[in-house]
Design goal:
This protein has 226 residues and is α+β, with helices and mostly antiparallel strands. Helices cover 42% and strands 23% of the residues. The strands form 3 sheets. A 4-stranded antiparallel sheet has the order 1-8-3-6. A 4-stranded antiparallel sheet has the order 2-7-4-5. Strand 10 and strand 11 form a beta hairpin. Helix 5 packs antiparallel against helix 6. The longest helix is centred in the middle third of the chain and has 28 residues.
Length: 226
């Protein structure tokens, strides 16, 4: 297991756990790292799953899927994000979320049952991982609440501004990485052409600067809108 090469001990799930103890955790739970190619499904909706995944490298997106095959983008997942936890912990509840790789992705898969029973073998390490896991669940709830707030905005401009402000909080910088226009339109649940027009309008007004894969709000002008 490439704990040091992949910096697994730097993942949020292993915060406070030395690299050597991460190796012990992986051995005790029989966790595995697997690669998924760009555009491939990491998890399918309504499919049985027994593992909690952690993204080690790459980026993925969560898709809400109904029984008729219709999909809506929920949110993106980056390094350190958890996936598959709901279907692993609550297999009796049909899970309608699929996860698709936006880039080549490395995922650390931890068998849920092994995680539950590894406490006696791992002691303090197990307690730290479980604490970090609970915190990660809380962060997922925050993301979902942010999604609801974004979509509840009255105008497309307000949706985009709030979306970028939340991105800036998570990424810790004003110039944030964003997906392509098609995916961004899906995340904001709007028409792509309407989004393109709004971005152009905000650029013309000096509210927004953009690049190939980034956007940056003008903080002074955005604050003046309040």
């Amino acid at each position: 297991m490439q704990v040091y090469h992949l910096d697994l001990h730097e993942l949020p799930l292993f915060q406070g756990v030395p690299a050597a103890e991460v190796e012990q955790f992986i051995a005790a739970t029989d966790a595995k790292i697997k690669r998924v190619g760009r555009g491939k499904r990491i998890l399918d909706a309504y499919v049985e799953n027994h593992n909690i995944g952690v993204i080690v490298e790459g980026e993925a997106q969560v898709l809400a899927e109904d029984r008729f095959g219709n999909e809506n983008v929920s949110h993106n997942l980056e390094r350190g994000a958890l996936l598959g936890s709901t279907s692993a912990i609550m297999p009796q509840v049909p899970y309608d979320m699929a996860i698709e790789a936006l880039t080549d992705v490395l995922v650390l898969w931890i068998p849920y049952q092994a995680l539950l029973t590894a406490g006696p073998k791992l002691g303090r390490t197990h307690g730290l991982v479980m604490k970090n896991l609970l915190e990660a669940f809380c962060r997922k709830n925050v993301l979902m609440m942010q999604k609801i707030k974004i979509l509840s905005q009255k105008t497309l401009r307000e949706r985009l501004i709030l979306y970028l402000l939340y991105k800036a909080q998570r990424q810790g910088k004003a110039r944030v990485q964003v997906p392509g226009r098609v995916q961004l339109a899906k995340e904001l649940e709007c028409n792509r052409s309407a989004l393109t027009r709004e971005i152009s309008s905000m650029q013309a007004e000096g509210l927004l600067r953009t690049g190939e894969d980034w956007m940056e709000l003008d903080a002074v002008k955005i604050a003046a809108m309040d």
